[in-house]
Amino acid sequence: MFPPPTWCGRSWLPCYCSQRSSLFWDKALLAVIMQSLVQSVFDKLLPPACPTYTGLVPLITTLLQDRTCFRAALSKGLGLGIVAAAGLIKLPQIASIVSSRSAEGLSKTTFLVETFGHTYNLAAHVRQGYPPSTYGDFAALLLQNYALLVLIYAYSGQPALGVSIVVGAVSLLGGMCSGGFPLGVLQALTAGNVLLVFASRLPQAIANYRAGSTGALSLVTCVGMWLGATARIFTTLTEVDDPSILAGYIAAGVLNGIIAMQVLFYRGKKSPAAPRPATKKTQ
Q1: How far apart are CA 278 and CA 41, in angstroms?
Q2: Residue 118 has what pLDDT?
Q3: What does the pLDDT look like over 128-153, one tens digit per residue?
Q4: Quick one: average pLDDT of 31-48?
């Protein structure tokens, strides 16, 4: 509501004109700022295969008509979604360990090898200038793996060793991301992604099978890791021209799927307790 009218000199008309003019210009300025902000955001989010953002309707029309733009936009959207989900995907696993105060069923080898793999893959993507949407999940997963390693070793009676491993892993990441570390070594490591995936996931799958239980493994985390690896196959095909990275994601999708099915199959089952040594009766 406007304030009570004032009178303009000899005129008998209320002086709403200046107030309405000011309100009009405020709205117009706000609209220009919002339009500029939306355009800058879309220009940063849209892949190079898509034209410059000029409006929502033209963008939808382009996506429906241009398959190249649609694939690139879908890949980038999936990549950003994976990065966002990666920041939460292992929190249920962390919560499961803390609540049960046990790391039973979790393979140390799996998390150590996985952490090493995330480290050099993150460094290789950064050094080669790939879009952040293709590697941001490595950074998020690494942070959660650091916490998991500390917890696993702490509940195994080796807290100092767990902290030392994490400090070493952080130092290794910093060294690999620096220009002093040979890029050729990183490329050679990514070429062995399939072997690393098998080395990191197979021990966990074998341990689950032998124990007849998945221990403290989180169903949400395992299913999420499988879905993430599967989605990464598409984003790698679209945005990253590297067959070794693609092969690694295919292997990860298969093995993460096996572990997720094991969690479903063994759900609610506990590993058999180790038999106690027989004690001799004294007469």
Answers
A1: 70
A2: 92
A3: 888 887 888 899 999 999 999 999 99
A4: 66
Cβ atoms within 10 A of the Cβ of 117, count? 24
Measured CA to CA, the distance from residue 179 to residue 174 in angstroms comes to 10
pLDDT of 190-228, one tens digit each? 888 888 888 888 888 998 888 888 877 888 888 888 988
In a domain, 38, yes or no: no
Q: For residue 201, is it within any domain?
A: yes
| Residue 251 in tokens | 């292997």
- Report, as an integer, the average pLDDT of 252-276: 78
Domain of residue 134 covers: 77-265
d(CA 75, CA 248): 18
Domain count, the chain: 1
Q: Which residues contact 233 (CB under 8 A, 6 or more apart)?
A: 246, 249, 250, 253
Q: pTM for this one? A: 0.67
Helix (H, G, I), strand (E, B) or coil at 214: coil
Please return the burial class of 74, using the count of CB atoms within 10 Å of its CB with bins 0-12, 13-18 and 19+.
middle
Structure tokens at 149: 């390693």
Q: Report which of 175, 145, 181, 150 is spatially closest to residue 164, judged by C-alpha positions.
A: 150
CA angle 243, 248, 254 (to 5 degrees): 125
Q: Is residue 17, in this structure, part of any structural domain at all?
A: no
What separation in angstroms does the CA of 191 have from each of 137, 169, 232, 248? 19, 21, 17, 9
Asked if the structure places residue 71 within a domain, the reply is no
Burial 138-175 (b: 16+ CB within 10 A, else e): bbbbbebbbbbbbbbbbbeeeeeebeebbeebeebbee
Look at 78 and 151; give whichever has higher pLDDT: 151
Is residue 50 within 8 A of residue 72, CB to CB? The reply is yes
